[in-house]
Amino acid sequence: MGPRRTRRRGPVHVLLRAATALLLGLTTLTGCGPADGAVTDVGATGGTRVEGGTATMALPPAATPNWIFPIGTAGYLASYNNAVQDLLYPPLYTAEKKGAGLTMDSPRNLAGQPRYSDGNTTVTITLKQGHRWSDGTPVTSRDVEFWYDLIKHDKEEWAGYSPGLLPDNVKKFEVLDDHTFRLRLDRAYNPAWFTGNQLDNFTPLPRHAWNPHDEAPKKVFARLLQHAKQLSEFATDPLWKTVSGPWRIEKWTTSGQVSLIPNKQYGGPDKPHLDRVVLKPFTTADSEFNVLRAGGVDYGYIPPSVMAQSTRFKKMGYRIDPWEGWAITYVVLNFNHPTAGPMLRQTYLRRALQHLVDQKTISDVVWHGSAAPTRGPVPAGQTDRDPFPYDPKKTEALLTAHGWQRTDGRLRCARPGTGPGQCGKDIPGGQQLRLELLSQSGSTETSNTMQEIKSAMDKAGITLDIRQQPLNTVLGTTVPCKRTEPVCSAWQTGFFGTQGSWYFPTVASGESLFATGAPSNMGNWSDPKADELIKKTEYSDDPGALRDYARYTAYQVPVLWTPNPAYQVSVIRNDLRGIDQNPTLGLAPQDWYFVKKGGADR
């Protein structure tokens, strides 16, 4: 998960002037690559590959990796956590871009393509030969079974759990031999959906190192969880030294800087070329920009507001490449909050709020064309049109028709009750239409987006109080909750989408996001018809099933749809090659390498 954004022309122009001044003052850039570190004066192609060197990549603003255990729990689902985990403990299947969509047929896969039989109720999977743990032990079917047993016996702890899906939909896990296992499913499933949205979770874990005494799964899981919460010991804990991926940990600081070095036992086809990869955290986009312009990172990003000045970076040996994500972006709404919940549970009120989000202007002015409107629960290009375009007059009409009136410029419920023309259940007379937004810090674009929405709501008589916190704090607070739990009173609405709020697996269905009780249904939304339509995407290979789900959910407004930005506008040294910006935000630094002048790129 990316991780949630605001517009005011004034602050945007201030940022543009400041960034332009920085660019005008750029001198020689130095990086972290081979030799003296200077940027090699080569074009986008050409040059001779160099083995070795260190590449430093900038992490998103206020984003610090803080979870290493490949089984995620609530509050630790940020995309950068998953990206690091997958370099140490890769899943069986990795999604890659193919045309306008994604494919699960990657050469990096640890297993061959799954074989479906018995009317799509049985799946047989064979691991590829040659994959080993860093201590030399082969990766086997038992390691996959170990992962499955952990989530099966501790599914309530696993943030990927949705009732009825993994592990509930697997009746039996059968180990056929060291490299082959079979899943007996509880019914027939759409093979594309099951491969892309269920098998993508399957991750071999080192059973011989993590459970040498064959302890019960619940006991093992509890022990692993204790280790996973010791951030200061990630680099030294022997537990995390047994890995199967192309990289292993060299350093992992509590501030979030991660240094990785090659795993010499890695059995995949893409062995690392670099000596080291450093993932460097920054508190704000501006602080990253300052380091980038001084040559402190090899793979960074610039604020969208300075894209017009990007030619200066190109002249100095850098390339500009927007990283587009398979994602949507939104403000999550807490339907279970004691005071805000009753208001947010009213469909008419959510639609009224959506009409105040000027997505086109925010995309054009705040994000300078690097964002596109989100029109529903699936990525752009898979939706029909914007169901609730910016229209303050429609907002006023909707709220007036349901019993809200202005008093001293603020909207209050004048006609309480559940009948026609009344405010709705559990909304008392005189209650002010006032909401609090917990938004991630560190991005001027995000701050300006939220201020634009606040301004539009203020003109409509709605009060929006904005509170900004670091991304990890926002993610740890905006979690699914019951109405009686204290955490449910801690937030009303939340935004964690500076780099996109939700990145989908291969099939952009809603079982993890908008189904009742889903692990990432942060706002606790529940709609029986949506649940039914989501199930159809799981069972049927009819493309109309996803379209029907997307259209219905978009009109129900379970969240406030906001512009979906590119994950980042990447700035990459021309002499750093092999970078493929995966739309699911996966990293493959084992494919990166530096080049020097002379010869041809190879």
From TrEMBL:
Taxonomy, superkingdom: Bacteria
Keyword Zinc belongs to the record: no
Keyword Transferase belongs to the record: no
Record-annotated Solute-binding protein family domain positions: 110-496
Pfam families the record matches: SBP_bac_5
Principal location listed in the UniProt entry: other
Keyword tags: Signal, Transport
InterPro entries in alphabetical order: Peptide/Ni-bd, SBP_5, SBP_5_dom
Segment forming the signal sequence: 1-37
Cellular localization per UniProt: Cell envelope
Family the UniProt entry places it in: Belongs to the bacterial solute-binding protein 5 family.
Protein name: Peptide ABC transporter substrate-binding protein
